[in-house]
Write a structure and sequence with these properties.
This protein has 291 residues and is mainly α. It folds into two domains: 174 residues, no CATH class; 30 residues. It is built from ten helices and no strands. Helix 2 runs parallel beside helix 4, helix 3 packs antiparallel against helix 4 and helix 4 runs parallel beside helix 5. The longest helix has 29 residues. It is elongated. About 3% of the residues have low confidence.
């Protein structure tokens, strides 16, 4: 929003901080428990940030709807209404994410197991911080709006007839509205109006619903066909940069040596006295017999 009072910049920043706290808590707990930290775990914060911001938007949207329905209610009832609307959705998404990653801990690959442990635990902390830390931030932001305070400085914003001589830019940045009215009179967000009045009725049209069913059927059929075409394995070329020397190496290896099958390596697991001539002859004789 352009309003200097209804603007929720700090609220959004606190939502990101909530996700960051979840990452710090989970990483600290896992490291304290001795779970190995592998390179793939470094990707976990981006997943947690996506889920944390999604939960933040759900909480804010539920708070806005509750505040519009109960303009004269106290903070306790507003927060209770917000949790009643948002907590179920946040809980279900968190449970599915945590279940998916904790199932991944059954894998035989240690790196994948560590990644799933770190990320699944981070989802749990993200859920806890969303329902505790971010809920408190919502209340503080509501009190700031009720006090008609600026979003950046939190100083009271004066709204009255004595501002008529100021420019529109000054009134928008320092008062909250070019019309010199209290920004708390702002109505429903335009995006909410679009989905409620235009997008929703458009989707509920019977022909659009039929089209959606057909499109989903085509998508489902293509997905099933794609699953039948999946082949196990990995091309090592895809793990290197496009300009890496590894790519022409594997190209030449396939071109000149693929007909000979896999390489056979002999590993000597015991201590060997290579300075002893008889031992060296024995190793050479063993190699010749293998050949």
């Amino acid at each position: 929003r352009l309003s200097c009072i209804r603007n929720n910049v700090w609220l959004a920043c606190c939502g990101v901080v909530s996700a960051g706290l979840a990452v710090l808590s989970s990483f600290g707990l896992m490291l304290f428990c001795g779970v190995p930290f592998v390179v793939t775990v470094a990707n976990a914060p981006f997943l947690i940030l996506g889920v944390g911001v999604d939960d933040m938007f759900i909480m804010i949207a539920s708070w806005e709807q509750s505040s519009r329905k109960k303009e004269k209610s106290n903070v306790q009832s507003l927060l209770a209404e917000t949790y009643a609307e948002a907590a179920l959705s946040v809980t279900i998404t968190t449970l599915t994410d945590v279940l998916a990653f904790f199932i991944g801990t059954w894998t035989a690959f240690p790196s994948v197991r560590s990644f799933c442990l770190y990320t699944g635990t981070a989802f749990v902390f993200c859920y806890v911080y969303t329902l505790t830390f971010f809920g408190a931030v919502l209340v503080l932001n509501h009190k700031r709006e009720q006090g008609n305070r600026h979003w950046l400085t939190c100083l009271p914003v004066a709204v009255g007839n004595d501002q008529t001589e100021n420019s529109c830019l000054y009134n928008a940045c320092c008062i909250g509205s070019c019309s010199r009215q209290s920004s708390q009179l702002e109505g429903e967000h335009p995006m909410s109006i679009f989905f409620k009045k235009y997008y929703g009725p458009f989707l509920t049209n019977k022909w659009i619903k039929l089209l959606m069913v057909l499109l989903y059927g085509a998508y489902l059929g293509g997905s099933v066909y794609g699953c039948t075409q999946i082949r196990e394995g990995i091309d090592l070329r895809n793990l290197a940069n496009d300009d890496s020397y590894v790519i022409p190496y594997y190209d030449d290896d396939d071109k000149y040596f693929s007909t000979y099958g896999p390489r056979i390596m002999v590993v000597i697991t015991e201590r060997v006295d290579y300075w002893n001539e008889m031992v060296r002859h024995g190793i050479e004789s063993c190699a010749q017999n293998l050949e």
